[in-house]
């Protein structure tokens, strides 16, 4: 399936590493003008070296005011990928308030904030648009030591649905992808232990973790006109894990 984003402006958060970085590069390859947002300047430097057309923005998305200042001049955006997220493994009884606040700030509140800015512009221009939130199988499956992360992704799925409901009349579609484990920096944090990894893989009918490309392809599809009647879905990219 040929997908072209020629003439489109895209913004990807968490574009320094992992799935976000691969998404930014794929969007650029498909012709979009890409703004890449992340908090580590060195990642942006290497990204721009790899693809000089990408516009870098360095900001910590946990900081509402700094995000507003950093993004106020990015211009009209047609395609938004809310990908940035963080996690910290803590058993339920040891969850700390600082980690609760940090994860909800980045994984949920920043998505709301950036989406308000971007969708507000789409609505004002009457241009429509497409937004993809990167959620997780963790929104629908309890994972040990992932209390707050699971809770943020559950919240993100419901945020996606309400955004789809309210923004749909403005021809702005909002969907999420919900991957299983991908061995990025975040994936390695939770699943490097071979025993844990094997237990998780045994619950995935296809018997393997996802690759970055598996997730990126689904994000591109949901951003594109090929999915023009799809709005408000949480698309598992999980080899069947959530089906059983
Ligand atoms: P990753 O390799 O850790 O990359 C995350 C990116 O987001 C990094 O560039 C990171 O920057 C950036 N980021 C994190 N906090 C930020 C903040 N406060 N401000 C700005 N940028 C920030 O993670 P990933 O695995 O690619 O995850 C991408 C998305 O997929 C996330 O939403 C994650 O929840 C979801 N997901 C991942 C998996 C998995 O197994 N990997 C599975 C399901 C869903 P720094 O490195 O500088 O912090």
Total domain modules: 1
The side-by-side strand order for the widest beta sheet comes to 3-2-1-4-5-6-7
Q: So, CATH architecture?
A: 3-Layer(aba) Sandwich
Give me the strand/helix succession: EHEHEHEHEHEHHHE
Cofactors, ions and other ligands in the entry:
NADP nicotinamide-adenine-dinucleotide phosphate
Shape: globular
CATH topology: Rossmann fold
- In CATH, what is the class? Alpha Beta
Question: Which structural class best describes the helix and strand composition?
Answer: alpha/beta
Descriptive notes:
The protein is 44% helix and 15% strand. The protein is α/β, with parallel strands linked by helices and 244 residues long. The protein has one domain: Rossmann fold (3-Layer(aba) Sandwich), CATH 3.40.50.720. Strands 3-2-1-4-5-6-7 form a seven-stranded parallel beta sheet, with helices on both faces. Helix 2 links the parallel strand 2 and strand 3. Helix 1 crosses helix 8. The longest helix has 29 residues. The two termini are 29 Å apart. The mean pLDDT is 97. Bound molecules: NADP nicotinamide-adenine-dinucleotide phosphate.
